[in-house]
Design goal:
Layout: E1 8-11, E2 14-17, E3 60-63, E4 72-76, E5 87-93, H1 100-105, H2 107-113, E6 116-120, H3 129-146, E7 149-159, H4 161-171, E8 176-182, E9 198-204, H5 210-222, E10 227-232, H6 241-257, H7 276-279, H8 284-303, H9 306-321, H10 326-352, H11 356-369, H12 374-386, H13 390-402, H14 408-413, H15 424-438
Parallel strand pairs: 5-6, 5-7, 7-8, 8-9, 9-10
Antiparallel strand pairs: 1-2, 3-4, 4-6
Helix pairs in contact: 8-10, 9-10, 9-11, 10-11, 10-12, 11-12, 12-13, 13-15
Length: 441
């Protein structure tokens, strides 16, 4: 398929990217789940019916569990998993449908907190909200059939657009107890809330989405949610394990306080992460400045000439490594990442419309601000292919692969490469290196 146009989400006057192994066994059909559409916690199988073929401490790929054979998910069972007792579940949604990535990243936490982890391989950015929610429903139904899950301890987590999926799923599904939302604002999801889960938000101090996450945090306070905002050292990515550990512990403590599980962690003391603004990253004045400057950048992205952007980028690069206070340095980094994000969004939209002059303009800005980002070179390769230069396209794709481009499905599905993607040169320089990169996740 051709590349999908990323949506625009306006929150706090910023834009952010929108969403928003083996087959371990066959789902038993001896006891059907009641289809409540929104609530999965009330229909359970007897213990003897759970899948006993699943392997603990192994990353399993579960597929072909519904009529849609394209959907699959990754599964990790903790070392003490046993079909005779129920376990909490944490269901992950990655923005790029990399189901294994968060499972591998947080594997030790599954064992530490005795959680079953599952990650979707089929829900990603560019998918319509109804389709994403349908797939999330089907995934959770299969997990409840296959694994002995405690129906009172079902949690979801997501990164970027995946966090929007997780929040929408939790706000409309009474089976979801809590959410760990990473690197994404989700104010629009609060417009239709039927369930009030507990929410732990994680924002990187270098993330272009931080403004929107702060606004989401304020909106959650106004709506009366039990929630925390944890600002950590990081950019737009799944947070480090040490930060995710705090989030999972907080959710576990809420469950213990409500009598839903044994009192294992109540002696642990966690800070009030909502006090981040007192000592971390930035303050109201910096946030206001960031909001105003990002609005100006949005207006200039289409019409501003390269001299304007070279001046802006040069100034921000100077501030991020200078002797400025940390709040100014992090502001500069976030704004550079914001420009990079706009470069991706605007370039992809122009290429989808075959508007090569506009794409060329956006690519120059994108390359200037983020020259080692593999997506820059992937989009430049699409531009060259559209312009009829296949050799240049292969060369650019090879550079993207060397820089770490790993989306093998996106590469295979891009129709503009179909006329030359079976050549030996393409296979050697592009396909095989990207495949190797993808196997790291």
């Amino acid at each position: 398929m051709s590349i999908k146009t990323a949506g625009y989400i306006i929150l706090f006057n910023t834009i952010a990217l929108c969403l928003c192994a083996c087959n371990a066994g066959t789902t038993s059909s001896e006891v059907a789940l009641t289809d409540t559409k929104q609530d999965f916690g009330h229909s359970r199988k007897t213990v003897s019916h759970f899948d006993k073929s699943l392997v603990k401490n192994t990353f399993l790929r579960i597929q072909n569990f519904i009529a849609d054979s394209n959907q699959s998910y990754q599964l990790y069972l903790p070392s003490d998993y046993d079909t005779l007792k129920s376990f909490p579940l944490l269901l992950f949604f990655d923005a790029h449908a990399r189901g294994n990535l968060p499972l591998k990243k947080y594997k030790s936490l599954a064992d530490k907190f005795h959680f079953v982890f599952a990650g979707s391989n089929s829900i990603q950015n560019g998918m319509s909200p109804p389709e994403a929610q349908q797939r999330a429903n089907e995934l959770l139904k299969d997990l409840i059939e296959r694994v002995n899950i405690n129906p009172q301890l079902i949690f979801v987590s997501g990164f970027s657009g995946g966090a929007k999926v997780a929040c929408t799923f939790a706000f409309t599904n009474s089976a979801i107890r809590g959410v760990i939302a990473c690197a994404a604002p989700f104010t629009e999801q609060l417009n239709a809330v039927a369930n009030h889960p507990e929410l732990f938000l994680i924002a990187g101090n270098q993330d272009f989405n931080m403004l929107g996450i702060v606004q989401a945090d304020l909106n959650l306070s106004n709506a009366g949610f039990n929630h925390q905002l944890y600002v950590v050292d990081g950019k737009h990515e799944w947070p480090d394990e040490k930060f995710f550990d705090r989030a999972l512990l907080w959710l576990q403590l809420q469950a213990e306080k409500n009598g839903l599980t044994g009192k294992t962690y109540l002696t642990n003391e966690l800070p009030d992460f909502n006090d981040w603004y007192k000592s971390r990253v930035t303050d109201a004045i910096i946030l206001k400045q960031e909001n105003e400057e990002q609005n100006e950048m949005k207006q200039q992205f289409v019409n501003g000439d390269l001299s304007y952007w070279n001046k802006i980028i040069s100034s921000l690069n100077e501030k991020k490594i200078s002797g400025y206070p940390s709040s100014i340095r992090y502001l500069a980094i976030r704004e550079l990442n914001f420009i990079s994000m706009m470069g991706y969004v605007y370039t992809e939209a122009a290429l989808n419309e075959h508007n090569l002059p506009a794409a060329a303009h956006y690519l120059k800005i994108y390359e200037s601000v983020d020259p080692i980002n593999p997506d820059v070179w992937y989009l430049k390769a699409i531009y060259s292919a559209l312009a009829g230069d296949q050799n240049e396209s292969v060369s650019l794709l090879s550079k993207a692969a060397k820089l770490g481009f790993a989306d093998i499905d996106k590469l295979k599905d891009e129709k503009i490469f179909s006329s030359f993607q079976h050549s030996k040169k393409f296979q050697d320089l592009v396909y095989n290196p990207v495949l190797l990169n993808s196997e790291k996740f």
